[in-house]
Amino acid sequence: MDLSQLNAEIVTCRKCPRLVEWREHVARIKRRAYRDQEYWGRPVPGFGDLRARILVVGLAPGAHGSNRTGRAFTGDGSGNFLYPALFRAGFANQPDATSREDGLTLTDVYITAVGRCAPPANKPTSEELDNCQPFLEHELHILKPKVIVVLGRIAFERILRIYSAPLPDFKFGHAATFRLPHSSSKDGPWLLASYHPSLQNTQTGKLTMSMFDAVWAKSRELAEAE
Prior knowledge:
Blueprint: H1 3-10, H2 17-29, E1 47-48, E2 54-58, H3 66-69, H4 77-88, E3 109-113, H5 126-143, E4 147-151, H6 153-162, E5 177-179, E6 190-194, H7 199-202, H8 209-224
Parallel strand pairs: 2-3, 2-4, 4-6
Antiparallel strand pairs: 1-3, 5-6
């Protein structure tokens, strides 16, 4: 299975009744500001460079962001903080992300999430994340990234579960960096943690522009290291 086949499978998934009902309800009702737009209303596939060395893992689509636009971190406050940072770091050709047709391309970065459907109150359940986990595992198998940048604690802990990494040895913190275990004698990919670029974090100063820029500089350094 390649990424195009995997993404075709992702967008047709209906494994989680609660999420199916919510994402489609939001797409029908819409937000007043987007009343004239057609919402995506389906699971959101990954997006980016198919040869990326850096995999970025978020939480789940926003109800009126990715659930509307159909592309990760596109059309919401989190994306308005993420994509300018990727542009400053040289990973994106432009700082703006408004729709799937806006011309945005990524270099050496592929963006995905632990949850593919917009959850009520932005809180997917553990069972729903379990249903999504095989999609992320397939992406990891196909891309074989050198660096995994996780945005937020939930994405951090989900990656640890996939790699069977002992949680007590890996403590989440902004810019925390770890080498993940590998099933063979070789080391696994680097794991680089960041606070999530949610409005709750960026508007309160918990995550600043300089803090976020440092993460992307570090991700490039790790990707280019032998």
